[in-house]
Amino acid sequence: DVKVTQSSRYLVKRTGEKVFLECVQDMDHENMFWYRQDPGLGLRLIYFSYDVKMKEKGDIPEGYSVSREKKERFSLILESASTNQTSMYLCASSLERGLPYNEQFFGPGTRLTVL
Amino acid sequence: KQEVTQIPAALSVPEGENLVLNCSFTDSAIYNLQWFRQDPGKGLTSLLLIQSSQREQTSGRLNASLDKSSGRSTLYIAASQPGDSATYLCAVRTSYGKLTFGQGTILTVHP
Q1: Residues A30-85: pLDDT tens digits?
Q2: Cα-Cα-Cα-Cα dihedral sign, residues B40, B41, B47, B49
Q3: CA-based, 20 to 30 A from B48: which of A106, A111, B57, B61?
């Protein structure tokens, strides 16, 4: 079974802090994704990566950056957290770059609260 | 821009009933469609993936159909159980990096 893990289930940070959300997958997937989920807005793609050191902006990249130094790990970075970044953050992965036929598998989510 | 709509937004049924959840999308140029289940406060569990060339997929009591030309998919749940209570999300892929999600249908199955 594919396993996607996220470093924290719940996180509380203060405005202006730098925040790191970590995601690890154990199935040698090439593609990894970060989404946020908000009531009434659904899931929205922040960033994705189709290879080590590669990244592409999604629909709402403002205020976020990402890092993929190793194939299995994809980090989401909030350079200076703001209250409007309070949300549920979901990481996902899928098997192969350039082949849009693959299933996406999701992690358990990180509920981030910015005070 | 691809838009995905799910109807109904919420559904409450007695145990044992067969039910249908609907998903529609505006751009028929999709690669595939995926149905997910989400329990409160949790991540998404993939239920079924239908490629654009397929008409349906089945897994246990679940059956998903796809009519790409009309921009519709349905998820059929047979003999519903209280454990089926969750939010069901559909998502379409229109490029290799991107899933577009519907808002979900909140299903409650009461004993």
Answers
A1: 999 999 999 888 899 999 998 898 999 999 999 999 999 999 999 999 999 999 99
A2: positive
A3: A111
Q: Is A62 on the interface with B (CB under 8 A)?
A: no
Q: Is A32 exposed, middle or buried (0-12, 13-18, 19+ CB in 10 A)?
A: buried
Residue with token string 């679940």? B62
Alpha-carbon distance B101 to nearest alpha carbon in chain A (angstroms): 6
pLDDT tens for chain B, residues 1 to 111: 899 999 999 999 999 999 999 999 999 999 899 999 999 988 999 999 999 999 999 999 999 999 999 999 999 999 999 999 999 999 999 876 678 999 999 999 999
Substitution target in B36, B93, B99, B103 with the highest count of A β-carbons within 10 Å is: B99
* CB < 8 Å to B23, chain A: none
